[in-house]
Write a structure and sequence with these properties.
The structure is a homodimer.
Chain A lengths: L13 H6 L6 H7 L7 E3 L5 E3 L1 H6 L7 E7 L9 H14 L4 E5 L4 H5 L7 E2 L2 E4 L1 H5 L5 H21 L6 E6 L3 E3 L9 E3 L10 E3 L1 E3 L4 H8 L3 H10 L1 E5 L4 E3 L6 H8 L6 E5 L4 E4 L14 H10 L2 E5 L4 H16 L5 E7 H7 L12 H19 L5 E6 L6 H11 L6 E4 L1 H4 L5 H10 L16 H11 L5 E4 L1 H12 L7 E4 L19 E4 L1 E5 L4 E5 L19 E2 L5 E2 L3
Parallel strand pairs in A: 3-16, 3-17, 4-15, 4-16, 8-11, 17-18, 18-19, 20-22, 21-24
Antiparallel strand pairs in A: 1-2, 2-14, 5-6, 6-14, 7-12, 9-10, 12-13, 14-15, 23-24, 25-26
Helix pairs in contact in A: 4-17, 7-10, 9-10, 13-14, 14-15
Chain lengths: 565, 565
């Protein structure tokens, strides 16, 4: 039964590679950005949080250039968006820029499930990767506690007399847990008699799907955090009045639980580039980017900041730009679209098992997916570079086919080898990005705030997904009108759609046209400040696979945690 | 809706008093115990964890004297066990001893519920109290995650084919959450169709009731931690075979989640005495003391260590001595029993509302409760001192009545004013304790390991509770025999009984005799290493009161968290 002493460390594993470098003391990392010692709250020698006072003092500083790393629609072949963000950040540092990267923090669900952690891989990792992939500085646990405190207050309120006349059938506020646990998706609670409250249906989402997470990532200060939490709609009364979270009288306690978690975390890449790793909202029912606090701080401290958005550019980049940049007043200077020959081949019709054989024609076909994402980004006024992450099996002809396919768009294709080589593998990409960010900004949003909600959804569907039209359910249409009547018409929309396709059908790879986007349900995230449009079944609590990653994680006799990736 | 800027800080609150002192840098606190800088993993300027390597190196050091602080049966009048532990530690430091205190870490449940935090009060507090009362160093969150990972693995195992043939009706492993949330006590999970697993009954305990918490507090090293987690019994197969946690193949991941949490935390009292605050198991279905790792480390580093046990001495001290000291090889040198005139009056029959009026006769009557606890402790061979925490309304005659009542036992009664005055208020108690710990040890356990389980329960009931007999349910008798047949006969017993009385009836105050202790159910905690005997209804998930403490907690504009106590 004792696994601990029995297994050796795999020297090719991400954990072993990460451990092969000696991290800089976090104070030295902070010094690269002129962060003074007293502004850094340390969690051990290699992690820190920036004080809110220090961040407030950055307000009037000039801001650096912001580079967004996004990707083609993901496939099982893998793209390497996080490694590209890290590799590009390191390559910019190597080129003499004062650079920083901004990333999301990992959830324990994928760490123990199928996907693994979120700290990059190979020579392009953020460290200490064991800490970051497990509890890190406790931010996600704090969000779990704050979210579930509100849940407990809701049922407690009903138990003690329900003065607000909450309709137990219309409580929208579920509970959360930072694990993949399918058995909690749908539950009944309050069973067992009067002492245990009133029975009702409920369910658990994974913590990163909590609106509290989205709010933590969009608020620009403690006061805004509190105001957004207060505004959240947790359900309705019997008379169908929307009930705000503040009515449960626990917002102060929630802010207290979130105070430390709200401070951006500072760590480093394997090459010592400062890395802000803070927040990680779901990329479907939320906007999928690291916190505004981290990005704004990084921009005030560095000349160039590389960040990533969730999923492919159709979802992640669009939401980064239309939600996060809009709310935070950010104007990115360039975008990098990540692709691989293997993934492009899959978009070109090659199955996963067939990826071993060279297939130039399939690459060329699959480039339609890449080209559409590039075109979409130019609709936001962003200059674009393509990062082609190199795999050993890629042939020169296949690589050439990508450059050729994109020639007409005036976009450079940069072969990247940061996974194997670190910063030296992303030098070409870094040079291109340094040139792009010097161009005068022409950044613009896809739609204006004052456009009606349904029309915003249609704009994203037509302009980005290239859908022929949107098919709203009658319930969705009615709810959108309700939201507008209640004063939420100026919010941006947050599209919840499969990440695997431009359409709502995960099997429709590459660049489909003529499709219809079904919007069966819309939800209000009044605190986060967006209206979620659900196109298809969206899972907010993943399950574990039959062989979970947890099985291969173990602690070695010296305390080293092996098996994380 | 915005509470944050609206409320002033109450200068008489524990939070304000704690904030009135400037804490020492944690490195200076560590230096008092000759803990080198490299052995301390820092969480900000005022909290740290001791490295496991350093602790391993302490193994051969001579050990200091261990003093247990315990109490009469608690009443709504309050006793002040934690403040006495802190005040005594400070007074011993003031007297020139190299002293440390060992305490449990607070759970968020009581912090937001009715009881408040667990960091003492007045001038006898551990700091930084805001941090300790909220997430501290994340230990309890880590336990929640490790516990619930195992829960998810169990349902995942059933979902993917149930190769172990787990009987879903006999899963003993519930889920946990570190909040008071009565609606989660009894739930049904896995609803909603095949994708969500098999529906079954389940429930949530508060995290501090998790066997993982008990194990974290009893294990003496990482290897022991892993072995204990592996041994836990999580349920039965259809063929009634006990299934061990290790069979779910997630122990390595659980240890990885617990690695940092397993390191003892170091903080300080308001007077700068080193305080180890680590672990906090429930005091009914578990043993209710801080971790063995913390106590053993403190004893290797300090000349005298003051620690406390949960509830009154009948439950807390007995389990501290028969479970923790037995498993960890500890031999305490003295015990302090805490009482107040007000609480003794309640044991003497005065209701809470009548406590304002002096009543010497009631005090004398109530001293029967105190005397019995003192006598019980001498059965363990421990020299005893009584700490009488002074309230402003106590009359000299009432105080004198306590001394008089105890005169026959040869035990000193020491009036304490550390709540109001800090260490100077506990000087008399400290002098007495310094004398007691110099006596040659006559410490012994109440019962030997090789006594049959039922007889161990009877021994505690007769010797400590003064019950006439134990009434075992037939199920309990059968299960005890089952445990013995399975090789668990040598385990100590962990009594789960109301803390308010020597009997199983919470209303039976003072010193009842002739009662029968009903043991309706017994449970095996195979990893923690004890057999739990349940006498009466034991709540493992508290509920929130109608006006939860959460309502009064808020963050001030400068980030100060007010409303904690």
């Amino acid at each position: 039964m004792h696994q601990r002493t029995a297994r050796p460390l795999d020297p090719a594993s991400d954990a072993a590679i990460a451990a092969s470098v000696t991290p800089l003391p976090i104070g030295e990392v902070a010094a690269k950005l002129a962060i003074p010692a007293e502004a850094l709250y340390r969690y051990g020698p290699h992690k820190g949080k920036l004080s809110l006072d220090f961040i407030a003092d950055l307000e009037d500083r000039p801001r650096g250039r912001l580079v967004l790393v996004t990707a083609i629609n993901p496939t099982p072949a893998g793209e390497g968006k996080t490694t590209t963000t890290i590799g590009l950040g390191d390559a910019l540092s190597r080129a003499g820029m004062k650079a920083a990267v901004c990333l999301r923090e990992p959830s324990l669900g994928p760490v123990f499930g199928a996907k693994g952690g979120a700290t990059g891989g190979g020579r392009a990792q953020i460290i200490p990767m064991q800490d970051i992939n497990l509890h890190f500085t406790g931010d996600i646990h704090a969000i779990t506690a704050a979210h579930n405190l509100l849940s407990a207050l809701i049922d407690n309120h009903i138990h003690w007399g329900n003065a607000l006349d909450l309709d137990a059938r219309r409580i929208a506020w579920r509970r959360v847990m930072d694990l993949n646990d399918r058995a909690l998706r749908q539950v009944t609670i309050g069973l067992g008699g009067p002492a245990n409250g009133f029975p009702r249906e409920d369910g658990f989402d994974i913590t990163v799907a909590s609106e509290v997470m989205a709010i933590l990532c969009l608020a620009d200060g403690l006061e805004d955090l509190e105001a957004r939490l207060s505004r959240m709609v947790i359900g309705q009364t019997r008379g169908r009045r929307m009930v705000r979270a503040a009515e449960l009288e626990g917002i102060g306690a929630m802010v207290a639980l979130l105070r430390d978690a709200f401070q951006p975390n500072l760590v480093q890449t394997m090459e010592g580039t400062p890395a802000f790793v803070h927040g990680g909202p779901f990329a479907n029912i939320a906007h999928g980017c690291n916190s505004v606090m981290a990005t704004r701080s990084a921009l005030a401290l560095a000349d160039v900041v590389v960040t990533e958005a969730g999923f492919g550019a159709d979802l992640g980049a669009e939401k980064f730009l239309d939600i996060k940049c809009r709310q935070a007043g950010l104007a990115p200077s360039a975008a990098v679209v990540v692709a691989t020959v293997r993934a492009l081949k899959m978009h070109g019709g090659v199955p996963l098992k067939g990826l071993g054989a060279p297939d130039v024609a399939a690459v060329t076909r699959g480039c339609e997916n890449l080209k559409r994402h590039v075109e979409n980004l130019t609709k936001f006024g962003l200059p674009v570079a393509v990062a082609l992450n190199h795999f050993t099996g890629d042939t020169p002809e296949e690589v050439a086919a990508v450059a050729e396919a994109l020639a007409g768009l005036g976009v450079g294709v940069h072969v990247c080898r940061h996974w194997a080589n670190g910063s030296s593998g992303a030098e070409d990409l870094a040079r291109a990005v340094m040139e792009l960010v010097e161009r005068p900004s022409t950044f613009r949003f896809l739609y204006p705030e004052d456009m009606p909600l349904a029309q915003k959804i249609e704009t994203v569907a037509r302009q980005i997904y290239r859908a022929e039209r949107v098919d709203f359910s009658s319930a969705a249409t009615a709810r959108l009108k309700e939201f507008e009547a209640a004063g939420f018409g100026a919010l941006p929309v947050c599209m919840a759609k499969t990440q695997y396709s431009f359409t709502a059908d995960p099997a429709a790879r590459n660049a489909p046209t003529g499709h219809v986007l079904p919007v069966r349900e819309v939800r209000l995230s009044a605190g986060a400040g967006f209206v979620v449009a659900l196109a298809g079944d969206i899972m907010t609590m993943p399950g574990l696979p039959s062989v979970p990653a947890a099985r291969d994680i173990f602690v070695m006799p010296d305390g080293f945690i092996a098996g994380l990736s």
